[in-house]
């Protein structure tokens, strides 16, 4: 099972916007840092802009955070970029004539919901500034 990388790429984008070269952070520079296509970066930046986390201007390199990094939680970022807010999906169409197949979805739903809520609570406790601090520690 592959988990989405949208959250980590979005955190990468926001970190680079905050600590990157002033007035030079654009989708091409970010894409180079992430090592992905600029289109992927622009799509995520569009979501971050819509969520009120960044300001961007077309054609210019005026990209900056709209909030202080300590005021942006990882949950804020997660909420902005993850369309499906579920860590786990339960497989569909199990065999209803099997004891496990008939009951697996109900048995897992409560467990997965509990895990999801726990993960979201943890993300709310971590600020973008903590990630940026860890990045800057590696600089020395």
Low-confidence stretches: none
Number of domains: 1
Task: Write the element-wise H/E pattern from the N-terminal end onward.
Answer: HHHEEHHH
**Cα Rg:** 19 Å
For the biggest β-sheet, the strand order reads 1-2
Structural class by helix and strand composition: mainly alpha
Beta-strand portion reads under 5%
Q: What does the main sheet amount to?
A: 2 strands, antiparallel
Mean pLDDT: 89
What CATH architecture would you give? Orthogonal Bundle
End-to-end separation: 36 Å
Please give the count of helices. Answer: 6
Global morphology: elongated
CATH superfamily: Winged helix-like DNA-binding domain superfamily/Winged helix DNA-binding domain
Explain how this protein is built:
It comes from Enterococcus ureilyticus. Pfam families: Rrf2 (PF02082). One of its GO terms (molecular function) is DNA-binding transcription factor activity. This is Transcriptional regulator. The protein is 59% helix and 3% strand. The protein is mainly alpha-helical and 140 residues long. The chain has a single domain, classed as Arc Repressor Mutant, subunit A, CATH 1.10.10. The protein has a two-stranded antiparallel ribbon. A hairpin with an 8-residue loop joins β1 and β2 (64-65). α1 (6-19) packs across α4 (74-81), α1 (6-19) crosses α6 (128-139) and α2 (27-34) crosses α3 (38-50). The longest helix has 27 residues, at 99-125. It is elongated and about 60 Å long.
Characterize this entry briefly.
This protein is an all-alpha fold. The chain has helices at 6-19, 27-34, 38-50, 74-81, 99-125, 128-139; strands at 54-55, 64-65. Helix 1 (6-19) crosses helix 6 (128-139).
């Amino acid at each position: 099972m592959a988990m989405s990388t949208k959250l980590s790429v979005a955190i990468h984008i926001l970190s680079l916007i905050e600590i990157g070269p002033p007035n030079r952070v654009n989708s091409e520079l970010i894409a180079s840092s992430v090592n992905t296509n600029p289109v992927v970066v622009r799509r995520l930046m569009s979501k971050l802009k819509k969520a009120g986390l960044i300001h961007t201007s077309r054609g210019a390199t005026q990209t900056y955070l709209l909030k202080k990094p300590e005021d942006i939680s990882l949950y804020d970022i997660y909420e902005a970029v993850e369309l499906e807010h579920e860590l786990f999906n339960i497989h569909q169409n199990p065999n209803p004539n099997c004891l496990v197949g008939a009951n697996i979805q109900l048995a897992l739903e409560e467990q997965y919901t509990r895990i999801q809520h726990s993960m979201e609570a943890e993300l709310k406790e971590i600020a973008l500034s903590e990630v940026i601090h860890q990045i800057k520690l590696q600089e020395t």
